């Protein structure tokens, strides 16, 4: 898991994220729910936030320069886990959903994160909804030939405000908005 890296503290455990160090100065986080198209559960978002905080603070990684975020299986990330979301809505647990979505770091713990070290999205297959929002908020995107990006929220009457629309306006520039 850690290759030649000697850590002061091991990375926080997550059943939904794999942590590896594939090269010197590189930490890779793999969204590991391929059976659910790597849809982000509340726990997965919390774990991602905890791991990124750990990466920022771990003394042994002070020289590590980059985080690579990728997905296991055929898709990068299908966005929020809508099955979990619907269950929480029906059971009255929607305040937990809202708390995570409005957390200090935003959806997927990336859209409002103030990380000094860059995050690279290695996109395999699709990045839909929140998956696209995560990609938009990474510093560098490396996309495979099969990569597809979508913000399908509009089909459900929802705005991609957890990191998609604000970031598109920042990175695309005024001239793109004039075309709309």
Automatic annotation (TrEMBL):
Pfam families: ECH_1 (PF00378). GO terms for biological process: fatty acid beta-oxidation. GO terms for molecular function: catalytic activity. PROSITE patterns: ENOYL_COA_HYDRATASE (PS00166). It comes from the Eukaryota. GO terms for cellular component: mitochondrion. Belongs to the enoyl-CoA hydratase/isomerase family. PANTHER family: ENOYL-COA HYDRATASE (AFU_ORTHOLOGUE AFUA_2G10650), ENOYL-COA HYDRATASE-RELATED. This is ClpP/crotonase-like domain-containing protein. It comes from Lentinula guzmanii.
């Amino acid at each position: 898991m850690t290759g030649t890296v000697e850590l002061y503290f091991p990375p926080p455990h997550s059943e939904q994220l794999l942590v590896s160090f594939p090269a010197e100065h590189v930490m890779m986080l793999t969204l590991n729910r391929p059976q659910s198209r790597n849809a982000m559960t509340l726990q997965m978002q919390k774990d991602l936030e905890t791991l990124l905080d750990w990466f920022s603070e771990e003394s042994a990684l002070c020289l590590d320069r980059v985080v690579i975020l990728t997905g296991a299986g055929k898709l990068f990330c299908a966005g929020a886990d809508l099955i979990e979301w619907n269950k929480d809505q029906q059971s009255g647990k929607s305040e937990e959903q809202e708390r995570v979505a409005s957390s200090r770091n935003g959806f997927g713990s990336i859209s409002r994160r103030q990380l000094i070290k860059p995050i690279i999205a290695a996109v395999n297959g699709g990045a839909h909804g929140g998956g696209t929002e995560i990609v938009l908020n990474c510093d560098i995107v490396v996309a495979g030939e099969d990569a597809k990006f979508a913000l399908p929220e509009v089909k459900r009457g929802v705005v991609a405000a957890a990191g998609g629309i604000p970031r598109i306006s920042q990175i695309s520039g005024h001239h793109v908005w004039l075309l709309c």
